[in-house]
Amino acid sequence: MAADADEGDYFVREIERNNGCTLKVKQCYLGDVGCVVWDAAIVLAKYLETKQFYDPSSGVNVWAGKRVVELGAGTGVVGLMAATLGAAVTVTDLEDLQTLLRVNIQENQALISSGSVTAKVLKWGEDVSDFRPPPHYVLMADCIYYEQSIVPLVESLKLLSGPETCIICCYEQRTEGVNPKVERQFFELLQQNFDCEEIPSDEQDPEFSSPDIHILIIRRKV
User: What is the pTM of this model?
Assistant: First the structure.
């Protein structure tokens, strides 16, 4: 598996935080979709440190001490950003991505002071008792692409979410092939139990945003 690769099989993507520190995220030359940093993951990671969430000059830090679960974490870049901002993060993906996640946690450990990050296996639709109590936030970037994963993904969101849980979903809208159909199916299913609100571009990072990449706030219906 690509995630068990030697050092020479990795290449690094650097993501600079607003404070000048740099997250160094290893990717695999070979492997499935989880082995690379997708643009939506960068957009979401940078959204987490916009001033509404994190503004040291005015003492704002929404992430401090919050329990966060990232779904379909892949390289772990979004969860790592949250951990550097002070959150207690669990990055999750399938078994064959765990080595890559652990490598990236180790690579960026020095940037994590008040927060924490651990990697766990979570197969969508299956038991989430390891993730109780419900997290304050669930993060997901570019998880809407396999038709067969839509039902288990929404099931995981239902199982993980408490009444106070905020889900932040970032995805790149793709117009080719089955993508529009998959997106439509996801939102139709999601809206049976959740309310969604799109974040306008002027509330996103001014540099790391794109008309094709959408950020949604999703909460359980009351």
Answer: 0.94
